[in-house]
Task: inverse folding
């Protein structure tokens, strides 16, 4: 820990070690996130940043937190059609997919097919149908809670279908618990305080995600705080795997490479 | 020029062929509607297809008439009188006044419909009192006949044929017209070609009450239909499987395709799940599979490396999903020209084609700069949810809000982005919205808006809503 007042690369004054440094910024002001760090290779990816398509499970930190969507969309192939399956309960609880937010104009994706499934059984069936179609780029399925239909067999079927037909599958669990699953990678994603907005210090900047890979085949689990590559896009940087580590908002001196804090394994 | 007049206008003195100024001089209250000849013709052609409910042979006759061959048909409607009553009643149901006549020949029916009082008539005695104009002759021939004192058809019949033939030598002569009217010369009816949709039918020797019968019948019907489609170079967009039950009921299962196809395996797979919904009751005695919506589809060559093209595979996936989950559940985004977020990001059924933007709204389709990426959330609640907001100053940024009984402290906020109500669509009391992008202490980001302003005279204090969640 570095003592005394220090400047955060974002431009604001950071607090001292006792937490009361700058009186103007004390009193509950949110700490400004640190600088963007080095490139973060996706776990399990080869040198080109490509990852063999498989089933990944993603747990949202909370149903109120939509941050996982940006994290997920950064890893999806946008050149090919995207099948997005939402269970009815997931739509009610955390909203329906809003295409203009995925990247206007032309909505960013080559083609988006949205399926509203009345229950988890129908959602899993639709996902499996989509995985059997090799022309689809990725299948995203949102399941609410811990339904009985989503057992080990169901997830294993999805994983096998995804690998056999070469279609990436993302099973998004909203308000669910991490029970037994056949998914090859299991993530837990939460939003973090966003980066500094380049023009307006009071406005939310580029999104930051605190992601945890807690189970993976062929990759080491870990925890990272990442953001999209700066400059490409504020919201949904499309460069697949274009993630960079973010130094944790904390107390450190200017010029010190704060990367070692970010990559806390 | 006045093309046609209503009964009320005729009573006021207006006649077809008059100039509009002359007619208005007679009665200034006359209302003129611009004639739409092409539209009238299209309507008559549509009515001709509809009129095939009474007879399989229907012909459009001139600009305002239909000819039906009702030989051997009338008894289905309770005789000729019943047929005439039915036709009149159904046209009245469409808001049209029909003058109907049934006669032994087409010419006689033409004359009776226009000049007769009795809708039914046969032979010479029925047409004898009609004026010579009922012979459907050119105006100058009619005038000549009237100058000769031959005012009715009865009078014309009394003239020797030889002298008539000597006096009128041109193509449209009264003698031929009279012969056609009396059935001495043929006047064939050339009905518009009927183009029935491709359909394959399977009749069963005995009624089958087994629920699996429909699936077995489908396996036989689909290849037959695919053969018909291939012969006519068509692809099916919508298929209907009908099961005809012994008790007269018809059970129907339908499926739609995103792009035209005649691939038997795909068609079979689409309908296979639907056969369970057919209720056999006391048994089916026939099944029919009909492609009720077809599009031209030329034979396509398969790729050298094998496998269907990507677009085709996606279309088939859409078909399978739509059949099982319903066409309104499988959708694609459809941008609409609107500023209100929930209206701008519409959806359309994925099996249907893209909405063609009307030329008028084409300019509005261009995305406005404010709609760029980054400004809109990835997720939108179907119905904006009311939230309680605490803010520092009445018009200032929000500081804290309560959504679904959870408190969110606003760490950073950006806004407002003002979206005014669309006055051309909404009621006058609709309030404007000020949208804010807010981020709470955990970094969750929301799209909230305040509806209305203090003292805008459109309701009480403005309310706050949460509309979207950023990713």
Result:
């Amino acid at each position: 820990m570095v003592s005394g007042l220090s400047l955060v690369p974002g431009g604001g004054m950071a607090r001292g070690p006792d937490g009361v440094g700058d009186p103007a910024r004390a009193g509950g002001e949110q700490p400004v996130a640190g600088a963007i760090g080095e490139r973060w290779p996706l776990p399990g990816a080869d040198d080109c940043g490509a990852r063999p398509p498989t089933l990944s499970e993603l747990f949202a930190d909370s149903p109120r937190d939509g941050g996982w969507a940006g994290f997920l969309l950064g890893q999806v192939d946008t050149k090919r059609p995207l099948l997005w399956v939402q269970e009815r309960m997931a739509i009610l609880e955390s909203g329906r997919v809003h295409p203009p937010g995925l990247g206007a104009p032309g909505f960013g994706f080559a083609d988006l097919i949205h399926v509203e499934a009345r229950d988890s059984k129908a959602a899993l069936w639709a996902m499996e149908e989509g995985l059997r179609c090799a022309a689809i780029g990725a299948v995203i399925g949102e399941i609410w809670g811990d339904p009985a239909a989503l057992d080990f067999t169901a997830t294993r079927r999805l994983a096998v279908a995804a690998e056999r037909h070469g279609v990436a599958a993302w099973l998004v669990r909203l308000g669910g618990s991490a029970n037994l699953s056949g998914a090859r990678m299991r993530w837990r994603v939460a939003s973090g305080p966003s980066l500094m907005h380049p023009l307006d210090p009071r406005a939310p900047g580029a999104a930051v995600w605190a992601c945890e890979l807690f189970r993976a085949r062929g990759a080491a689990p870990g925890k990272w705080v990442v953001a999209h590559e700066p400059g490409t896009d504020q919201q949904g940087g499309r460069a697949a795997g274009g993630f960079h580590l973010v130094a944790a908002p904390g107390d450190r001196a200017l010029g010190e490479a704060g990367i070692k804090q970010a990559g806390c394994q | 020029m006045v093309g046609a007049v209503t009964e009320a206008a005729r009573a006021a003195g207006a006649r077809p062929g008059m100039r509009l100024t002359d007619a208005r001089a007679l009665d200034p209250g006359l209302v003129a509607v611009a004639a739409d000849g092409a539209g009238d013709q299209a309507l008559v052609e549509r009515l001709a297809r509809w009129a095939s409910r009474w007879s399989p042979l229907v012909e459009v006759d001139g600009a305002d008439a239909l000819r039906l061959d009702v030989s051997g048909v009338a008894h289905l409607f309770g005789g000729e009188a019943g047929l005439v009553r039915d036709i009149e009643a159904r046209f009245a149901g469409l808001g049209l006044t029909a003058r109907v006549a049934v006669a032994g020949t087409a010419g006689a029916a033409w004359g009776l419909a226009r000049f007769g009082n009795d809708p039914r008539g046969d032979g010479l005695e029925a047409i004898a009192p009609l004026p010579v104009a009922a012979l459907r002759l050119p105006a100058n021939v009619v005038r000549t006949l009237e100058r000769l004192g031959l005012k009715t058809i009865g009078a014309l019949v009394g003239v020797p044929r030889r002298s008539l033939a000597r006096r009128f030598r041109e193509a449209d002569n009264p003698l031929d017209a009279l012969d056609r009217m009396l059935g001495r010369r043929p006047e064939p009816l050339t009905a518009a070609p009927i183009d029935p949709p491709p359909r394959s039918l399977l009749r069963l020797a005995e009624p089958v009450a087994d629920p699996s019968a429909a699936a077995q019948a489908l396996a036989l019907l689909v290849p037959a239909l695919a053969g018909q489609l291939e012969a006519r170079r068509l692809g099916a967009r919508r298929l209907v499987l009908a099961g005809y039950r012994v008790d007269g009921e018809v059970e129907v299962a339908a499926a739609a395709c995103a792009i035209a196809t005649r691939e038997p395996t795909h068609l079979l797979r689409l309908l296979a799940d639907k056969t369970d919904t057919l209720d056999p009751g006391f048994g089916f005695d026939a099944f029919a599979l009909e492609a009720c919506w077809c599009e031209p589809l030329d034979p396509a060559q398969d790729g050298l490396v094998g496998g269907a093209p990507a677009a085709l595979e996606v279309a088939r996936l859409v078909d399978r999903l739509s059949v099982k989950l319903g066409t309104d559940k499988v959708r694609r985004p459809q941008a609409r020209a609107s500023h209100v977020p929930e209206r701008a990001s519409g959806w359309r059924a994925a099996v249907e084609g893209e909405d063609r933007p009307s030329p008028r709204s084409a300019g509005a389709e261009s995305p406005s700069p404010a709609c760029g990426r980054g400004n809109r959330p990835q997720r939108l609640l179907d119905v904006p949810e009311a939230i309680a907001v605490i803010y520092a100053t009445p018009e200032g940024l929000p500081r804290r809000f309560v959504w679904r009984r959870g408190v969110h402290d606003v760490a950073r906020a950006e806004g407002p982005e003002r979206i005014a109500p669309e006055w051309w669509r909404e009621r006058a009391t609709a309030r404007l919205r000020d949208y804010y992008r807010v981020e709470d202490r955990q970094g969750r980001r929301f799209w909230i808006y305040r509806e209305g302003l203090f003292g805008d005279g459109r309701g009480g204090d403005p309310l706050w809503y949460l509309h979207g969640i950023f990713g």
Remarks:
- Chain B has four domains: 1-35, 43-182, 199-306, 379-469.
- The mean pLDDT of chain B is 86.
- Chain B touches chain A through 56 residues (CB under 8 Å).
- The domain at 1-35 of chain B is CATH 3.40.1170 (MutS, DNA mismatch repair protein, domain I).
